Structure formats: structure tokens, C-alpha cells
Amino acid sequence: MTQSLLQDIKVTKTENSKISQVDFNNLSFGSTFSDHMLVCDYKNGTWEAPEVIPYQPISLDPSSKIFHYGQSIFEGMKAYKDENGDVFLFRPLDNFKRLNISAKRLAIPELPEAFFMEGLKTLLEVDKNWIPTTQGSSLYIRPFVFASGKGFHASPADAYKFIIATAPSGSYFAGKVKVLIEEKYSRSANGGVGYAKAGGNYAGQFYPTQLAVAKGYNQVIWTDDNKHEYIEEAGAMNIFVRINDSLLTAPTNDRILDGITRKSIIEIAKQEGINVEVRPISVTEVVNAAKNGSLKEMFGAGTAAVISPISVFGYQGTDYTLPELDNDYASSLKKRITDIQYNRSEDPFGWRIKL
Amino acid sequence: MTQSLLQDIKVTKTENSKISQVDFNNLSFGSTFSDHMLVCDYKNGTWEAPEVIPYQPISLDPSSKIFHYGQSIFEGMKAYKDENGDVFLFRPLDNFKRLNISAKRLAIPELPEAFFMEGLKTLLEVDKNWIPTTQGSSLYIRPFVFASGKGFHASPADAYKFIIATAPSGSYFAGKVKVLIEEKYSRSANGGVGYAKAGGNYAGQFYPTQLAVAKGYNQVIWTDDNKHEYIEEAGAMNIFVRINDSLLTAPTNDRILDGITRKSIIEIAKQEGINVEVRPISVTEVVNAAKNGSLKEMFGAGTAAVISPISVFGYQGTDYTLPELDNDYASSLKKRITDIQYNRSEDPFGWRIKL
Ligand SMILES: Cc1ncc(COP(=O)(O)O)c(C=O)c1O
Ligand SMILES: Cc1ncc(COP(=O)(O)O)c(C=O)c1O
Q: What does it do (chains A, B) (predicted)?
């Protein structure tokens, strides 16, 4: 982080910092917002210069297309502070690339790399003191783009807003999760937008998730929309299944988000000598493995929750309980990835970026 | 429309009407907005009293869930003015019911009927002069609901806004449309949200539609996401196919919007003695009918475009041209439905509601 970046991007600082009101020892996830945000407007066919301004409300015409046609995409990443107060990002370029993959599918103009990367670094420099240091906490970073252009006509907007806002956050889930393997509802279609981080993919999950919660589960595991035969992913996590000593995860496709945690876990596991199989995982295979005792672990993997072990999965009215292991993959893989993220270990993969 | 309604719903009128700036003889679709809007907030577990206020920007926190998770739904309807200046709505209760069907699927709290119906009537009374009378034009009405509640957590919001805004509008499409039968991309999944008027369903169509436009088509005809074997619907229209003298349309299901124009056309056609078949329509059947000359017509049906005749459909690199008929169903059905809507004929079905 050098002075030059701050010179490139205009920064207007708040006169009323809220930081003294925040209890950094009791942070929930994504509900306290830092003092500043990066904003960047797309108008007349071009992305204008990004600026850092005080976190503040956005004013939009009622006909702005975000309200009507769901033209919105986002990313989720974190900034980590180590014991020396140095700040790190984890594979941020992959978030930038994925944002543009999402942009293309949602007919949103792609962003220049420098606007994203330099904008992010400038914002983090300005709000450095908002990055928490308590165990397990981090600064959750939310880059997002939405259609601000006007008109009640179902067609792409002519104006967009790119914003990065941040939220000092504690952990996403407390403890293990109970999941329900979905047999009726679906998250995404073949040829649809499931591989994009598009707003609409999330809203569609809320109702089926509420139904699952009413039955005592925390999360839904999505299956293919055709026959609900294969396990795909969870609400905001990719899914791993350990059968005997092999670690399985579904291949990404146009229905599944290409998670950065997922691909990092695959690489770390391989380096640890674990047999990793990236292939379709049928529900039948998982149920049979649960019955014959070869199913050892299931866990979700994503930026927000890191690794989230599953204690129970429900399917067709039956609950299957996962065993409690001493040397589980979930714990050791979580330690490996968070040690890299928080600069507590070597980074043989070159994933960590110092601000 | 009685005075009592205006007494029930608080009305704040604008001091700067824009109506004198509008050229009512040259209206495009959905891009000029009337002076007022209805707003209604959901907070603390309840929908608060709706109000009519001047059309104005909406101010939202950057973490409002509409920006991130696509939690939004809408409706599309029209107000028609007859020669005497009387104002009519077409099956408005069906739009209200569908809005609540969409709300349920998107985990949005359902609206009380009176808020929708009385709110709409009050708004139209206030902006009565915005309803155009030139041939083919009407006041397009856009009720919508979106998540205003805050937080970077993929879960339903705790606050929502219901708004009705209106736009005096000319016709949606000029002339016949060329359509492309989609073989790769999809609009919706089995078990997904395709039957809801959810924002995300529209954004996902923009990119495939852009690709079709680049090839010289106006619209995509969506097919099932599994094998792209069956014709489902178009961007904002249901699809009808005439083979010999039978009129075919796909049954609605969880991937297809239950269009009010579609179901009205089915009833009118039946009353006219046309053989109507509501059943899956395979692409193969349509292509074969085009080849052997039994394919007489194809048209889209929806509130915005009313009935939109198709001149050409493209499939697997071949364009199939529809014949020009003298006594086409599209024209006579369009006349029947618009005559009912604009109070130019009897309404044997009881669809028209006078304000
Ligand atoms: C649908 C979905 N799947 C998986 C993930 C995990 O992706 P990542 O590891 O890049 O955070 C996320 C969250 O970002 C997600 O929203
Ligand atoms: C996806 C979709 N299909 C069909 C329709 C037609 O429905 P209606 O006739 O109720 O306007 C619409 C438009 O409202 C639509 O958005």
C-alpha cells in the first residue's frame, strides 16, 4: 500500500467516525458497517473514476432496474490482520475475475481490474482500523454491482453502480450445521445463472431454506433440478464429502459457483496427500456410505463460513448422523487455510497478498 | 372510485406536476413516469399504512438486501381510458393474487388485498390525467416489492417496500417479432422461481437475448432447461402456436409464469369456437409443422405487448418464416381482448373493472 494509490483515487473522509461505538469483541456477521465505501458509476458507456466516500445511503429512481429485473452481482471476500497489524487479502484477483464472469452473464459491463484492485486497497487503507483482530474475526468485504439505470422495460440498464462496502465480522455459523438434502426445490437451471454470484440466486433459496429450518435444519443442500440425484452445493458454500479416506466434491458447472475456498481446499488436501475426487456425487452414494459406516465427514466451504462441518443430514424423512472423529479433515484443512489467510504459516501456493 | 378511498389513504400531492412536459402522442414504453406513487413499508413484522406521495427517489442503505440477494418481485398491469374518459382495469385481482404467489416463493411477506387494491385506485384517481387516450396507449402500472432491510447475510430481510409507480406508455413492440428458439441457455429450473415474477428471472435473460439480437432476432423463446425439447415462454410473454386451426399453448408449471393475457386468450378463443389445446409443445412438432405447411401462426401474449405476432423463428441455424394470413387468430384475438380492456365492447367474462 503506497501513497500513490491514495493520490489516484479521490478520498473523502467522514467527519463522524462510528468506530468508537463498535464492540470488536462481540461482532456478528455482516451487520456493522465501516466508515467508508468505494463507489464507481457506469454512465454513457464507461466506468467513471472510483472514489472513496463516507458510508451513506444510496438514492435511486423508483424505476431503477435493480428494483425490477434483478440485475445485480456481488462478491464476498475478507481482509485479515496478523499479530503485527499487517493486513492480508486471500486470492483477491480470483474474486475480481469471478465478478466479471458474473457481470458477463448478467449483461452488466465488466469492470477494469485496476478499479477493483486499487479501489479495494485504497478503501482498506482508509478503513484499516476497522479490521478486527479477535480470534476468528475479519473484515468482510462486499463488492457489488447493480443496475441503477431507469425504465420499466425488461432490458439491460444503461447505468450501473459498483460499490465496495466492508463489515467487521465474527464467525458465520456457530458450531456444526444440520443440513437437508433437497428433493423438490432447486437453486439453478442448466444454462442458467447458477455459476454467477447473481442476486436472484440467493432470494430463490430463502423460502426452501425457511421450510428446512422449520423442520429443524440450518441449511439446504441443493441437488440437480432435473432428478435431484446429485449433490451440488449449499446456500453460500460448496460441499465436500469424505468417504473412507477420500475427499469428494462435485465438479463445477453452469449451476454451481466456482468457490475460491473450494479450489483452495482441493489444493491443500492434495498437498497433504489426501485422495481428492472431483466428480458427481449421487445422493444414493452418500446415503449408502452413511448406512455402511464409510461416510466419515461432510462439510461446507466458503469465504464467509470458511469450513463448516455438518453434524447431520436429512433425506427423505430420515436423519443421518455423521460420526465424531478425532482427526477430521475439516479441522485440519480449516487450520491450514486460516493459517495462510492470517499469516500464521508459510504460503506455499502464493495466495496471500500483503496490503 | 369514491371520496372515501382518498380519505383512507393519505395523499400528498406534488407541487411541480411534470404533465405539461409530456408529449402524449409520442409515448415510448415505460420511460415517462407519472407525478405520484404509492409507497408502503413493511417493518417490525407488519405492513404499515400505504400513502400516495410525489414520485421521488428512494434512499437505501448500501447493505439493503435488494442490492445483494435479489429479493424482489413485481407486477405489470394497465389502466385504460375510454372515449368518455372513464378508467378501467383488467382483472386486477389476478395481479394482486400473483404478486402474493411471487411473494411467498421469494420469502417476502404477503400484502393485504386492500392495500393493493385501494392503494392502486387512490393512486389512479390522483394521476387520472396521466392515462393516455391515443390509440394503443395506456397507463402502464408497475407494482413492486423489494427487500430494504439491511445486512450482508444471505437470509430474508426484515424490512420491505411496496411501491406502485405508473408510466403512460405507447406500444411495446412495433410490428412483428423474429424469435430464436433457445438451445443452450435457460430461463428457469424445475423447483425454481420461474412461475414467480421475481426480478432475478429477468436479469438472467438479458445476456442470451443480447446474443440472439446480435444474430438478428428480437426475442428468445425459452425451452425446458433439461433437454431444450419443449417450448415454454418468451421474455415477458407466454407463447401460442397455431397448427392448422388449433391453437396450442404450453401448460403452466413451476418454470412458467401464469400469464393473465394467456388465460384470457384461452377463454376468448374457446368462446370463439377455436380448438384450444393446453399441452406441452415440442420444438420438433413446431419445426415439422413449419416444414409441412400446417404451422399457421405463432404469437406472444402478455400485458405489455398484448399480442405480438411472430414473423420468423430460428432454430438450429435455420430460419422458418410464418405465412401472412388474412384471417389470423392473432389480430382477431387482439381485437377482442383490447375491445374489452378499453370498454369498446361487452365484457361477457366480467374481467373489466371500472374505477
Ligand atoms: C452459492 C455459493 N457457493 C459457494 C460459495 C463459496 O465460494 P467462495 O469460497 O469463493 O466464497 C459461495 C460464497 O461465496 C456461494 O455464494
Ligand atoms: C415471464 C413472463 N411470462 C409471461 C408474461 C405475461 O403475463 P401477463 O399476461 O399476466 O402480463 C409476463 C409478463 O407479465 C412475463 O414476465
A: Acts on leucine, isoleucine and valine.
Predicted-complex ipTM score: 0.96
CATH number at residue A90: 3.30.470.10
pTM greater than 0.90 (yes/no)? yes
**Which of the residues A225, A229, A230, A303 would you substitute to probe the B interface, choosing the one with the greatest number of B C-beta atoms within 10 Å?**
A225
Q: Are strands A51-54 and A36-43 parallel, antiparallel or unpaired?
A: antiparallel
CB contact under 8 A, B150 and A31: yes
Element (H, E) at A123: helix A113-126
Asked which of B169, B197, B218 is the last residue of a domain, the reply is B169
Chain A residues close to B109, C-beta within 8 Å: none
Q: Where is the domain boundary, B110, B136, B169? A: B169
Residue B17, domain member (yes or no)? yes
How close, in Å, is residue A157 to chain B by CA atoms?
10
Do the chains contact at A72 and B74, CB–CB below 8 Å? no
Tens of pLDDT along chain A (355 residues)? 344 454 589 999 999 999 999 999 999 999 999 999 999 999 999 999 999 999 999 999 999 999 999 999 999 999 999 999 999 999 999 999 999 999 999 999 999 999 999 999 999 999 999 999 998 899 999 999 999 999 999 999 999 999 999 999 998 877 899 999 999 999 999 999 999 999 999 999 999 999 999 999 999 999 999 999 999 999 899 999 999 999 999 999 999 999 999 999 999 999 999 999 999 999 999 999 999 999 999 999 999 999 999 999 999 999 999 999 999 999 999 999 999 999 999 999 999 999 9
At a CB cut-off of 8 Å and minimum separation 6, what does A285 contact?
A243
Contacts of B153 in chain A (CB under 8 A): 29-31
> Domain of B96?
5-169
Domain shared by A140 and A256, yes or no = no
Q: What is the CATH number of the domain that holds B187?
A: 3.20.10.10
* B54 touches ligand 2 (CB under 6 Å): no
Count of C-beta atoms within a 10 Å radius of residue B215? 11
Distance separating alpha carbons of residues A240 and A219, to the nearest angstrom: 15
Pocket of ligand 1 (CB under 6 A): A 76, 197, 233, 236-238, 257, 259-262, 302-303
| Identity at B249, one-letter amino acid code | T
Q: How many domains does chain B have?
A: 2
Based on the number of CB atoms within 10 Å of its own CB, is B204 exposed (0-12), middle (13-18) or buried (19 or more)? buried
